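User: Could you go from structure to sequence for me? I need the amino acid at each position, not a summary. Structure tokens:
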């Protein structure tokens, strides 16, 4: 009788152990598939030859088969330098617009008595939900009517619009963990609402604001569809220059640019994770 009662528990434990091992194997395999293109692309960016394949010298680990020439091309070629400058310029200004707007929107949405809160939330998050090609086409026709197409102002505004939902969601997540007793304590000590926000609320939610700003900048840095619709020849960003290079002139400089963007993304992840721990 005792063995009969224990057997189902032992069997259940064995099944759970097998499932746990299988789950880890499946996750590891998926993770490997996701990393495989990056693991192939980064070594190819150091190829001394203008090929997108591993040369015999690279496979033999010959030092002469590796070179930094494509990274030097990113620095020396005017088109690539202009693309990196445009991406940084547009990203910084778009983030500077999206961060305060998204923070203020999150503070308003955090209020429980806000009327039409679900509708407002849906409108704010719509750039994340609507297919980007639809957003790009509609904004292109609208900006053409008002004269903002093929201008830096138009690109900055659109990139800010795409980054604002990320700031809103990040700051809202921070506000959900904020203890309201801090603000009440500041008010009971005579602090005005503005002083309470500036000296109590803002420092407490600053990690969320910074994380949202980082995500907004990363979104601007990676955006390609809207940029193709709205930018002119002189307003090429790094993703558009990479897309143009694939269509017109195949060069491993594209792999070098991709590696640079991956390094930037890794640094963004490290900063974001450190802020989350804080």
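Assistant: Here is the amino acid at each position, in order:
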């Amino acid at each position: 009788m005792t063995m009969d009662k224990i057997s189902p528990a032992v069997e259940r434990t064995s099944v759970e152990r097998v499932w746990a091992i299988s789950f880890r194997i499946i996750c590891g395999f998926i993770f490997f598939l996701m990393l495989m293109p990056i693991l192939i692309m980064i070594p190819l960016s150091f190829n001394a030859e203008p090929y997108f394949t591993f040369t015999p010298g690279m496979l033999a680990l010959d030092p002469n088969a590796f070179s930094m020439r494509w990274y030097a091309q990113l620095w020396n070629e005017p088109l690539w330098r202009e693309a990196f400058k445009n991406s940084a310029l547009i990203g910084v200004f778009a983030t500077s617009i999206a961060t305060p707007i998204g923070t203020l929107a999150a503070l308003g949405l955090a209020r429980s008595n806000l009327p039409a809160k679900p509708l407002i939330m849906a409108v704010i998050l719509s750039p994340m939900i609507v297919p980007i090609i639809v957003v790009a086409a509609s904004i292109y026709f609208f900006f053409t009517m008002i004269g903002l197409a093929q201008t830096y102002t138009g690109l900055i505004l659109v990139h800010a619009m795409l980054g604002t939902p990320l700031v809103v969601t990040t700051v809202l997540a921070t506000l959900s963990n904020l203890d309201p007793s801090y603000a009440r304590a500041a008010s009971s000590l005579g602090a005005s609402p503005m002083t309470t926000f500036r000296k109590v609320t803002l420092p407490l939610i600053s990690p969320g604001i910074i994380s949202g700003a980082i995500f907004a900048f990363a979104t601007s840095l990676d955006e390609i569809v809207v940029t193709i619709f709205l930018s002119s020849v002189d307003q090429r960003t790094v993703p558009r220059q990479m897309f143009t290079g694939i269509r017109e002139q195949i060069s491993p400089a594209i792999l070098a640019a991709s590696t640079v963007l991956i390094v930037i993304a890794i640094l963004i992840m490290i900063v974001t994770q450190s802020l989350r721990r804080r």
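One structural detail worth keeping in mind: The radius of gyration is 25 Å.
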